[in-house]
Each structure stands twice: as C-alpha cells, then as structure tokens.
Amino acid sequence: MFLRIDKLQTELPPPKRQDPNEAAALQELLGGKYGEMSTLSNYLFQSFNFRSKSKLRPFYSLVASITAEELGHLELVSNGVAMLNNGPDSEADDAGDGGDISGAPFADMKDIRLAAGFFSHGGGAVPVNSNGLSWNNDMVTTTGNVVVDLLHNFHLECGARLHKLRVYETVKDPTAREVCGYLLVRGSVHAHAYALALKNITGVDIHKMLPTPNIPLGNIPECQKYLAEGSHRRLYRFSPNDYEEIAGIWGNGETALPGDPPGELEVIAGMPEGGKIHQLTGVPSAFTPDYAPEEMFEIAKKLTAKV
Amino acid sequence: MFLRIDKLQTELPPPKRQDPNEAAALQELLGGKYGEMSTLSNYLFQSFNFRSKSKLRPFYSLVASITAEELGHLELVSNGVAMLNNGPDSEADDAGDGGDISGAPFADMKDIRLAAGFFSHGGGAVPVNSNGLSWNNDMVTTTGNVVVDLLHNFHLECGARLHKLRVYETVKDPTAREVCGYLLVRGSVHAHAYALALKNITGVDIHKMLPTPNIPLGNIPECQKYLAEGSHRRLYRFSPNDYEEIAGIWGNGETALPGDPPGELEVIAGMPEGGKIHQLTGVPSAFTPDYAPEEMFEIAKKLTAKV
Amino acid sequence: MFLRIDKLQTELPPPKRQDPNEAAALQELLGGKYGEMSTLSNYLFQSFNFRSKSKLRPFYSLVASITAEELGHLELVSNGVAMLNNGPDSEADDAGDGGDISGAPFADMKDIRLAAGFFSHGGGAVPVNSNGLSWNNDMVTTTGNVVVDLLHNFHLECGARLHKLRVYETVKDPTAREVCGYLLVRGSVHAHAYALALKNITGVDIHKMLPTPNIPLGNIPECQKYLAEGSHRRLYRFSPNDYEEIAGIWGNGETALPGDPPGELEVIAGMPEGGKIHQLTGVPSAFTPDYAPEEMFEIAKKLTAKV
Amino acid sequence: MFLRIDKLQTELPPPKRQDPNEAAALQELLGGKYGEMSTLSNYLFQSFNFRSKSKLRPFYSLVASITAEELGHLELVSNGVAMLNNGPDSEADDAGDGGDISGAPFADMKDIRLAAGFFSHGGGAVPVNSNGLSWNNDMVTTTGNVVVDLLHNFHLECGARLHKLRVYETVKDPTAREVCGYLLVRGSVHAHAYALALKNITGVDIHKMLPTPNIPLGNIPECQKYLAEGSHRRLYRFSPNDYEEIAGIWGNGETALPGDPPGELEVIAGMPEGGKIHQLTGVPSAFTPDYAPEEMFEIAKKLTAKV
Amino acid sequence: MFLRIDKLQTELPPPKRQDPNEAAALQELLGGKYGEMSTLSNYLFQSFNFRSKSKLRPFYSLVASITAEELGHLELVSNGVAMLNNGPDSEADDAGDGGDISGAPFADMKDIRLAAGFFSHGGGAVPVNSNGLSWNNDMVTTTGNVVVDLLHNFHLECGARLHKLRVYETVKDPTAREVCGYLLVRGSVHAHAYALALKNITGVDIHKMLPTPNIPLGNIPECQKYLAEGSHRRLYRFSPNDYEEIAGIWGNGETALPGDPPGELEVIAGMPEGGKIHQLTGVPSAFTPDYAPEEMFEIAKKLTAKV
Amino acid sequence: MFLRIDKLQTELPPPKRQDPNEAAALQELLGGKYGEMSTLSNYLFQSFNFRSKSKLRPFYSLVASITAEELGHLELVSNGVAMLNNGPDSEADDAGDGGDISGAPFADMKDIRLAAGFFSHGGGAVPVNSNGLSWNNDMVTTTGNVVVDLLHNFHLECGARLHKLRVYETVKDPTAREVCGYLLVRGSVHAHAYALALKNITGVDIHKMLPTPNIPLGNIPECQKYLAEGSHRRLYRFSPNDYEEIAGIWGNGETALPGDPPGELEVIAGMPEGGKIHQLTGVPSAFTPDYAPEEMFEIAKKLTAKV
C-alpha cells in the first residue's frame, strides 16, 4: 500500500518565463528510456515480483523503498514540466469570462515541439519523452533474477545520470535546473545503493565505477545545498515502519563516494522535509480549469466549508 | 510525496494451481485500456497538472487521494498475476542447485499466451494487457479542464467495472476471483465519487446511471464480505494528514447506491487494515532468484542481522 | 461526403459454431498489413491528397471510388469477426436477468488467442491483426506521386490476395469462407484496375503479372457464384453520380484476365444489390447490450413508435 | 455499404499561405486521441458490433448514421491539412520539367515539425496527431455494452470539443479556422445526440452538462453562419433510405441547447448541400503528381474523352 | 562495409517435426528485448556513433567486430525459426500444382500463437518477440559515453544469457536446442569481452560477476562440443584485415572463466568454419515460393546456366 | 555469415557546420518506411526465409547479396547523421576536463526537432525517422512468395528513390548531399535489378517504368562522378566467393536504362574501393566519450601497443 503527502520532495523555484520547449526537455527525464517512469516502474514491478522476499529481505527492501522515492521524483519532474509550460503565475488570469478566443491567442503554441501537449493536456505533464513518444513496457526490466535485476538497475541509474546531465546543460530556467540538481544527487545515491547491493552478493567492487559519467556532483552549483545537508549520504525509508533491513546494505561502515563531501552513509527513518507544491493558476482562455470558472470556485468554497 | 507500507490492501488467498493464462486474464486489469495502470496514471497526472488547486481543493483532493489507492490496486493485481504464474508455494523448490535444466523442464510454457512473460519476467507482472500489449500514454487523459477530466474518470470507472466483470466471469482460481471481487467494490466507490463531484459542479444527477453495467455488487459472492464491512460506503484518504476536503463531496448526507447495503458515505482518515503480501518462493531452475541461491540467502541473513 | 446503406455487400451465412480463434484469423484481413484497414486508408488518404485532380480525373476517380468499396469490405470482415465470436444466434439468450455470473461462465475465453477481444470488446471487431496488434499509420502510403502510389496499390492488392488465400486455407466455418471468397474476387478486380491504370500511364503490361499468387479464382469453390454473375468484370462506381471517368480505365475494350470467365470489363453505375446485416443477438451475461436489457428494449420500442 | 459523393460537407476557403506547422495543428483533429479518426472508428466499429440491432433500433441507427457524417469530417480535416501544406494554388507550378532540384528548393521543410510529412507524403494528410504519432486501436472503444459505449461517446465529443477549441485558438489561416468552426457546430450536435440517447435509457439529464467546455458557440465568429442556418439543430441521416429511427431520439420535442439559437431539433433525410473539393495543384519539383506530368495529363485527357 | 558468406556460423540439425510455437519461442531470442536484433543493433549503432575512434581503437574495434558476429547470430536464429515453422523437408511438396486449397489444409495454423507469422510470412522469421511484438528503437542504447555503453552491453549479454537459458528449458526439438547451445557459448564470450573492456578502463573486476545467471555452461549438453573446441576462449575478428586491436583486451594473459575449460583467450583472425544453410523446401499450397513453381524453377535453371 | 571492413562504401566530405535538423532529415533515409533499415531488413529476412534456395538460386543470390550492400548503406547514412549532429571536427574539444557545464552550454539543443537524439544518443544515429518514430516490423515484407516479394522490393526501391529525392532537395550541407547522391545511384541499380528479376519470371517489362519518379540521375550534380565511373551499371557481389548466379539476371546483354550513360550491366566480384570512416572527435562536455577522457585515451594507447 501507498500513502500520499501533499508536498514535493524539494521546493521548486517559480519559472521566470513560459518555455514549452524547455518543459519538453524535462519530459526526457519523465518519460524517456532513462526517465522517472522507467526507474519507478522497474523498481515497482521488481518489488511486486520479488521471489523469496523473506530470505532476501535487505535486497527486497532496498528495491521496495527506492520505489517510493521514485514516485516523488516523477511528481517533481511533472511539476516542473507543468510549471514551465504555464509560466509565471498570473492571478488576473485565474477567473473571468475566459477572454476573447477568436484572435488566435495561442498562436505561439503552433511552433513548439510538443504541440500535442498543449492541445491535449493544456501544458500538463504526461509519460512521454522530449519528442512526445510514449513510455512503455519495453523500458521495464524485471527478470526475477536478483543479480540481473540489480545489475540492470545500476546501469539504469548511470544512464539516468548521463541524461540528467545533458538536460541540465540545455536548460536555463531556475525551475528546470533545480529539478536536475536535486535528481542528480538522489540518482547518485540510488546508483551507489545498487552498487553496494551487488558488491554484497558478488564481491565485485562495482561502486568504484562511480561516478559515471566521470564528473563529480561538486561541479554543479544546483547540487551544492543538497550535498551540504548530506543528502548524498542518506537513503530514506519512505515508510512509517517498514524496510529497516536496507541498513544492512546502506550503512555498515560504508562511506560517501570519493569526490563528494565525506561521511558515513545513513538510513533515514522517514522522508525529507519537502517543500510546497506550486499553485498552477488557471488559464481560462485555454479552458483550464474551464472557460469561466468562478461558479466552480464558489461551489468548491462551499464544499470545503462543510468539511 | 508518497510513503510505502509493506502490506496489500486486502489479503489474497494462495492459488490452487499454476495457471499462466489465468494470470494473463488478470493482466487485462493491470495494463489494459481500463486497467489499473490507466486509472492510476490518469489520476496521478491529473493531480500533478491540476490548475487552481487551492480554489478547487475538494476536487483536487479527490483526484489526488484516489491516486494513492490506485497504487495499491496496481500492487494487488500484480501480486495476483505473479502468484498465478508461480502456482502454489513449494518450499522444496526454493534452494539447491537448480536441478537439471537440460530436460526441457518448462516445456509447458511453450503454449501459453504470454510466453514472453515467462522468458522475460519469469512469470512476474508487467504493464501489459492480456495479449501482451504495452500500456502507454494513449491511455492517459489529463486535459486540464476539470469537467472533462471528471467526466472521463466517471466513464473510465464504468468501463473498468465492465472489464472486471468479464475477467471475473473467466477465472476460477480463488486468487484471481478475490482480486476481482475486491476491485469491483472499490471501483464502484470511485465511480460514485466522481459522479458526486460532477453533480456538485454541473447539477446533473449522473450517479443515477450507476451501477453500469446494470448489475448489483450483491450478485457477486466475492464482494459480500467487503459490502458487509461497508467498504462500498468508505473513501480512504490514504494520507496521514492531507486531503480532508474530500468529505465535502463524499459525505454531506450522501448515501450508498440503491441496491447496495444502505448507509451514509464516510471518509476514513487512514487506510484499510490490509493483509500480508504473499511470499513468492523462488524457482531456481527458472533462475528466480538465481540458479543456486543458498549463498545469496546466507548473505542476506548476515546483512539483516547487522541492522 | 459519404452516405451509408444498411446492408452488406454480400450476405454472409450464419456461423455453425462460436470460434474465437477463427474470428482472430479473419482479423488479419481487417487489421493486418494487407488487411482492409490498409487498403481503405491508403486509398482514402490518397484520394484526399490527390494533386491535379481535374487534370488526372480518371486516376483520381479510380482511387476515390474504390475507397468507397473498401469501406464495405471493412464492414464485411468486421461482421464476419463479430459473428464468429458470437456463434449461432440464440434467441433465448437475448433477455432476462443475465444469468448467474459467479460460475465462471466464460472460462473458455481464458485460452483464446485474442483474450483482450473478449474482455474489451465482448467479441466485437477492432482494427487489429490476428495477433491483436494495432493497425497504424506505418501501413499508409500516400506519396503524392501518382506512379509510386499506383504501383504501391498494385503490390498491396497482390499481397492482400496472398493473405486472403492463406486465411481461406485456415478457416472451416462457412461465414469465414464466404468472407474470403467474396473478397478474393473483388480484390482481384482492384489489382486488375490498378494494373490497367499503370499500363495507361507507363505503357507496361503489368496486368500480365496477374494472378499473383499464381492460382486462378476458379480453384476456389466459394468464388464460383461471384464469377458466374460476372463480379470479376465489374467495377462499381459506389456513387450516385460521380466518378464516371473510371470507364476510361476499366473498359475501353479491356477484358477479363485469362483463366477467369471471359468477357468485357464493365463499370456499374450503382452498387451491388447486397445482403442483409446479420442480427447479433445479445449476450446479457457478457453485458452485451447489458445485464438485463428488457427495459432498454422497451424504451427503444417506444422511441421507434414515435418516428 | 457506403456511397461516396465528390463534395466536401462545407466549402473551405483557400489558404492565404503555406504553413506546415498550422497544418500540423489540424492533424491533432485528424489523428489525435479526440480526432476524427477516433470519432469515426469508434462509431464505425460500434455499429458493426452492435448487439440486438432490431430491438435497439433507434440507438443502433444513431451510431450508424453519425458514422457516415464522421467520414466526411475526416475528409474535411484532411483537405484542410493538404491545403495548408500546399499553400495557395499556383497554376504555373503544375507542369513543366519540375525545375532545378539541385538548389535545395525545399530547405524550408528542414525545420517544420512534421518533416516526415513532407518526405513521405508530399504534404498530404495521414492519420497521425500534431506530433506525428499514429492513431491506433487504443483509441477505439467498442465494449458491446450500450450504456458504456454511449457514455464513452458523450465524453469523447466533449473532449473533442475542447481540442477543437484549442486548435482554433492556435491557427490564423482562414482554411484552418473554417475547419474548426464547422466541426465545433457539428461536434456539439453529436454530443447533444448522445446525451439524449443516454437520457432516454437512464433518465439522467446529462445533456445539461453541455456545453462542455463551458463556452457557447456564439463566441466563435466562424460558427455564426452555421448557427444561422440551424445546423446546430439538425441531424442528417446521411443515407438515402435508412436510419429513420433516429428521429425517436433527435426530435420528440427536444430543442436546441440554451445559449444557442433556439428551435426544435430536426432530422434531415439527406445530407448537407456541401461545397466543392479544393484543387490541389501539383508541385512537380516535389514529384507531385510527378516531375514532368504533362504526358500524364495528356493521357488522362484522352481517357476521359472515351467515357 | 560488410561482406556476406553463404554459410551459417554453425550447422543446425534438421527439425524433427513442424512446431510453430517452438519457433515462436526462438523468436524471443530474435526480436525480444534481449534478442539478437537488440545485441546487433546496439553494437552496430554504437560502432557508427563511436567518438574518438582512433584514440580509443581497442574499444571501438571490440564493438565493431562483435557487431559482425551478431549479424550471423541473427541469421542463425532466423534459420532456426523458419526451419521449425516449416518442419522436416518434403521433396514431394516442392512442386506440382499446389494441391487442393479448398479443404482448409492449414487449419492447424488457427490455434498457434503467432498466427500472423503464417498469414504474413508463411512461417518465415521476422524481428518480433515470442508474442509477436516488434523489436524497436527503445531497445537501442548508444549514448556516446564509452563507459555507459560498455556497462549497458555487459548487462545486455547477461540478460540475454538468462533469456537463452529459459528458451532452452522450453524447447525440445534438436534444431532449437542447437541454436540455444551455440548462442549460450558465444554470448558468454561477449559478456566476458565487455567485462574485460570495462576492467581495463575502470579497474573494476566486473568479469568476476560471471557467469550470470549462476550456472556453468558445462551443465548444458548442447554446449559441450563448442567448449571442447575452445569456442569460449575465442573472439573472431570477422574481418579480413581490420580490428586487430581487440587483442589488447581479449588476450594479454587473460584466461577462460573459472568453471569453463581452462586456457588462454585468443583472437582468431578469420571466422568460424561454419556450416551449410538449410534448404527450406517450398510449400506450394502455402504459395511459397508460389502455387505452381515449376516454371519458375525452369527459368532459374536457365539463368544459372548462363553464368 | 558476415564480415566487416572498416571503411565506408564512399567517402563523405566533412560537414561545414553542425546542423541537427539536417541530420534529422537524413534520419528519414535511415529509419523511415522507405529508409535503409527497411531495405536492409526486407532483404535480410527474405534471404533467411527464402524457399527452394537451390532451385531458385539466381533470385536467392540477388536478394542475399543486395542485403550486404544495404548494410553499408545503413552505415553510410548513420555516419552522415552523426557527422551533421557533431559538426566540423574540433581537435581542441577532444580532451581536457570537459569544461564548465553549468552555463547551459547546449541551450541550442532545446529547440531542435529530435531533442531526444541529443539527450539519449549525444547526436548519434538510431533507427528512427525524421520525426523520431521508431522503425519496426510493420516495415518488413517477407511473404515467402517470390513474385510478391520481388514486386514489393521493386516498389520499395521506387518509393525510396522518391524519399531520397525529397531529402536531397531539403539539405544543403555537402555531407548530406553526398549521402543522397550516392544512394540515388545505388538505389536505382537495385530497382533495376529487381525489375529484371521480375521480367525473367513474369515476362513483364516492368523495368520500363524506370526511372520512377520520372527524373534522370543526370539532373543531380552529386550523382555525376558515380555515373562517370559506371556505378549505375554495376552490381557488386559483396562476397568473396558466393552469389555468382546474380549474373544470370544482371548481365545477359541487359544494358543501362535510357537516360543514364549507356553500357552493359556488369557484376563485380568484390566490393567498391570505398572511403575512410570519418573521425568523430569527442565532445567531453557532452560526455562523449566521457567528461575527462585523457586517462581512457592513455589506457587505449597501451592496449594497442600490446597487440
């Protein structure tokens, strides 16, 4: 079972301008082969399909709890996409009669890359990559063989790191850059964790391949505050009471990777403090939430008052 | 953010025999157009993309909290699939040298419908339908328009009910039937909830279309215990503290649908008690978790001891 | 614009038994690469996109009018699919309370190849091939170059003939065999027509490649009545008043292919007489049209009475 | 069976300039999830698969006859796409030696969104969305359950309306705007018709949800002439003699939706008068219809003369 | 550039009986995620896209030359598929008038899993998996980053080994088992080679993870003759003169993996001796090569005589 | 079996500037329906699946040997794509610390059409078309019927010629134009060869349809040097010793097509001389081959020295 908290794992700064192609770049991190839909779904189905759960508890718990974190990553990237497509909030736009729609008010949407994203989703995020292609089952690996699955996961996190780096190098808006910075730190933790799991089973020091690609997090300004708070050494359990056994893998005297701020690895019982979810003000002229939403707002207000 | 609890929403009885084609039937409820990947992803992305969240709080909270329940539905169906592919647990099979693999021990897998499910996933669940076709973005509707999205969700839950009924009529194993019975009750709650949301906004008594298809839950033996406990009148918040505003929609004097056991609708602060996750004993001859896993078990034991 | 007539191009005999895998074989002729969705859509979009329509009128009219016939072919195959999935009509089944659904009444559907066809469509036809894969745009050729398009169409009809022959060799039910027999005759006409169009433009006697594959229609019992009535020499305009210019290609002294009953090619102003559409009796236990449809029947009766 | 008439349902004004990205926007209305391929195919296959046709005649006839109208909608959008990709007609371009092709005469095509549309189709329409993704079977709903299918259709028309509105807000060319204006009026009729069908069966006033999105047709200049002629109150039978029973649903004292010009709903025996199909002058340098088409024109002339 | 030799890498024993579902199992090794289309295409495109080829020559040459071997693997599996679909050769069937096609001579094809494989390909191999799903670009990884690509390749070969083992455990025919046995040995070589490449760059002893899954080749009877000839220690250059630099990776004192017959790794200048390609006798009644092919045979004979 | 030679079939001039959208145009010739993946795969699988190989040797050998040439075409286009995405070589960029990545150094990639091509492949070629859609099995025709397959191949080469012409008309860079010029000549040879094969079997002078589209190679400057050397009259065996029987089809007194430089057709025992493969200098800031590759270069140097 899963519970939901109405917060993001980290707070995103508001976008400085509407930039649908930059939002599309973030979509690569959402629905691309190495995006969050992939990491999430790989671990989610691996955890469902895990054999001999009780006898392999530390490995099962590792995959199961990282899954919960990945749900929050998917949420973070999706929020970034929607924010960049929407642009800075505009209180004025959030009500009224929707405005005159006959003057091609969205002519700018004609030339963006993911035009269908405006027509179909009004700028919302969906599980597609930066070219609008759907995420799908070909991106799910769950073989039932623990070594093959963990090896796949290690490679997946390295590939994901490469993609995040390239998206980071492409975007300028602080919203998008924050998404990349945060995910680079957390993705590095996951790569490290899967490497340690493999090391425990096979005896191979595969964590010595990290960082791959060969660039330290320290080179990326947006990672600094997360490194400073020790995020690169923390694995959250993302569960009130379960998955304690991951401490057998993430801990046990293992330390941060060379090049990152030093210190011991630690398992955190809960979750990060997180930040508030951005308000996406409506755009009535795009029928989001609708053309003339005041009545709807009024109804919602009354319903809320009854609670 | 999301948290994870190491339990299922309801406990599934163990399968009586291995039945890959029956597992494939359940896959329709996982990765088909009206399956759990669809309900989950529609509400997940709608909640990410929701405009004017604070002004439309009851509607946002409804979509957001049902999302969390759908994650557990996906988990439930996936567990059912893996259990049916695996068959009754066999302690003896869970260790040793994997056995002789040269005598075509899996010749039975040659003629099953989802052969790739054995070759690639060792019988695990993946986001495909009963013919092995991948779930994809064409099954996600998130328009940003609140009425269109809610209307879509209402139709989706009705379609899902129809599919669940047909799968139910096809399967014989108690594992599969329990999955269907539980989901039919909970799916009816979601259809009802979206209908009430629409009624509040548009004034149309669309909940009077329920049940669609036109058959009461009372006709289905596997639904009885859930009806008896009032599950059809309960909407769980699936959150420690958030989404209270759904009580403005689910409550307010609204009652159970005619034909179902009567009573007032109620919001439950937490989540259902749930049941334990089934152990999937390994099949070393199928390399799950591996060919000779004893050493791996030993390592896991030591790691667990360190926690 | 298109008009619709509530008849099939030829009448199909009722199926002798329910046979979902035989229905699935027919699906290859509906949604396969060389199926009716492909022939239809190729000609439909070619006719929309045709350049210099007035200057190339006979060629435009040929493509445009064959399109209308293909719509009826799609209808014919689809009816065959639905009839074979449904089985012989059963008046008794068409009403009542739907019956007891808790005894796995559709357990037989568990092992059919297109299980999703039962779960999602209740046995109805959809644009997929015999393995359930969707027809899609990769099967549409509309280059705008008249010679390339006509050459493609000629090859497409030859390929379609091969596929129809193989499906014919696989099926035993009279419904399915009639579909194949009728389409083999009409497909041969289309191959012949495109060959004559190419011959007029390029001077190459490409119709001398026919029949491809190298077997005369005379070998196929189900084709005899259509040959006897001269169907292989007729091209219907499928339009009240348009597309007369096709007589410049199909006619002009051209005669039937060697091996087929001899005679001159002729353009028919209207359409074939056609046959009645099969009634598909409902299966309330499969929720088609619904679980307890009597009230619906009553309403329909009253509405009809008002007309 | 279907007949074809060589006219469009309404006449489209010629484009003012070539605009491939605007044509791509129209593709969303052709091959997008809520596009004409979807509305057409949903109703087409539902009509093929309809159970108990004679007992549910008004509902069957409604779906069957709207199908015929949708074919014409597909034709209308496709013509719009081809016209916008082609630009204003240029008599001079329609013959000759094709011109010098070595100077990158189509360099402008390098940066358009649907580049494959030029390379493969020479600017013709195909069943893809505004990002070039193929329409496919995941967009077909035909469950065999009449209430679920009608509810789906109602939701589909509402979603289609939203998409048409957003495309309308994006395009400036009169060709594209006329396509949107016409389809908005006709789509509203279809939403209204399905709502009335549902109301007859279920008793729920679901038509009171209309218009969704919440904006009257009166706000859209391009809709005015169609409203003035009463198009919003007319349902065409699109058949010489069949489908009369739809008058039981569309009629019976029902009136136009509030906000639209008032009046009774009426069934029209035939079809709209329609308008001429635009000539798409060839572009020999793009090999449409070919590089040096004069000889082809000459041959066509002679063949036409023989008819 | 590539050259072609009209031989297989190893000779396949003829099939004992026609077995389309066993052929379908082999398709997983052809078009599945870890099949030969994937290994081939990953290395093919990586070799095309390789940066700094001259400075990284041993690594480039490794990927480039293994590509050539993979082409032969694809050929081997494809031959196996076609042989199993065809069954034992039947000289008598190879000519004549094709036989009577009206008695449903291929009724057996109705119930096979890949029915489209018979209808469309007459039993030939195509790039799809064991459920008929197409191989596609989502299965290609070519990041341009040498470490990520090599790590991916190592994981791919381990996954491919797992899939080959499961297919091996499912099939009984000597043709299919020989395909698996040969590919298991050669796949192990490739896994080993990529591990050594990674070891050279990163210093990590990743080859110590082998074999994964954890079962020695010695357990598989069909591997014995290849082990005996030392195939597990040989890397072929598959080039007349190029790619010598691979000896820097495969060689240099490295030895066979523990558990396999011991010895030094060696680079072979040429290619394996190979075996003859199986004659696939025609099935005229299935129109392969055609219905009455004698005339075609006669023509071919004359053309050959002219050479 | 296949051998590999470390050369291209013809040498490509270096690109004058980086132009990702021009590279994307070339992708149409790689992964589009009529691209090199299609020609290659059609002939490759047809050659695997060919029935009665010995009795139809000239036809088998024709398909089998052209396959080998197509592999080189795929390589040529892929090299062109990678070169255009990379731009002119820059020695300076090929080493060092990768540079500062925090200043959005790849902001230009945000607006290109195939953004995923940069994020996922660092500008490398993959089997997708100019809109990023994957090549797939729907583009493979291998029916087992020799006439249908050859007819398909003839049409495929004509279609491919049309696509190459349109891409040629769109690109300006000498790298891209050289790719088109070379492939136009070689594609014409293949169309001619398949036409002659069909003529031999059916007696139809189908080669008289050539050239289609109706423009001589002489109009294209980039084709001149290849015409001058007689490439349009040469069919290479691309095999050390096999496939000699193609001389029965390509030869026998057949001559060049009218409009091209005259002369007899000739089979060449070997392969063209070819040209060197372009060095793709690394872009460490894009992590190709990695961020700081000097150490990797050093290791490669030492490994090479050992050979």
TrEMBL record, chains A, B, C, D, E, F:
CDD domains: Mn_catalase
Region of interest called Disordered, as start-end residue ranges on this chain: 1-20
Full protein name: Manganese catalase family protein
Organism listed in the record: Falsiroseomonas oleicola
